[in-house]
């Protein structure tokens, strides 16, 4: 009788230890995913499509935050390595401490390259300048923002329209092409 109690007690103790091990392992996995949400995407089986709500993604290079993307929802396709965002907002961080804010209705990011495209009522704000266009593309490797669709820029005492534009975030320079026209006050100093 006594040995049955010992066996039952030992079995119960062993069961508690195994259950505790699973709980600790689950908590550690949850903490790792909470601290680094990209681990969740890496854990998804190949070929899976997922839908997420309220998304925030940060791109860091050499320990320096380059941009943060926020969206109301996202669809991710493992086969194409693309994530499609709704109501997207991106904040780019410049070397001089300034920020560039970009908003649009939809955004697509290639999770392998971090290149993105934002479409639909695109607006870019920086300091006193505001840009409106329909499509903006961002090349993560070169840190270039490009629009091949017409752009309209307003700021302080100037207005500019162009058929296309390219902005180099690293050097803080902008190039406009096609039919470029605008009005600039003679005393205005344009600065990014």
Provide structural commentary.
The chain has two helices and twelve strands. The chain has 192 residues and is of the alpha+beta class. It has two domains: 1-35; 46-184, Lipopolysaccharide (LPS) transport protein A like domain (lipopolysaccharide transport protein A fold), CATH 2.60.450.10. Strands 1, 2, 3, 4, 5, 6, 7, 8, 9, 10, 11 and 12 form a twelve-stranded antiparallel β-sheet that branches. It starts with a helix and ends in an 8-residue tail after the last strand. The mean pLDDT is 82.
Strand content: over 45%
From the alpha carbons, calculate the radius of gyration and give it in angstroms: 25 Å
Number of strands: 12
Secondary structure category: alpha+beta
Oligomer: single chain
Number of domains: 2
> Distance between the terminal alpha carbons, to the nearest Å?
85 Å
The largest sheet is: 12 strands, antiparallel
Q: Could you name the ranges where pLDDT drops below 50 across 5 or more consecutive residues?
A: none
CATH architecture of the largest domain: Sandwich
Q: What is the fold-level CATH name, i.e. the topology of the largest domain?
A: lipopolysaccharide transport protein A fold
Tell me the number of helical segments per DSSP (H or I, 4 or more residues long): 2
CATH class of the largest domain: Mainly Beta
Average pLDDT: 82
**In the CATH hierarchy, what is the superfamily of the largest domain?**
Lipopolysaccharide (LPS) transport protein A like domain
H/E element order: HHEEEEEEEEEEEE
How much helix is in the residues? Answer: 10-25%
Overall geometric form: elongated
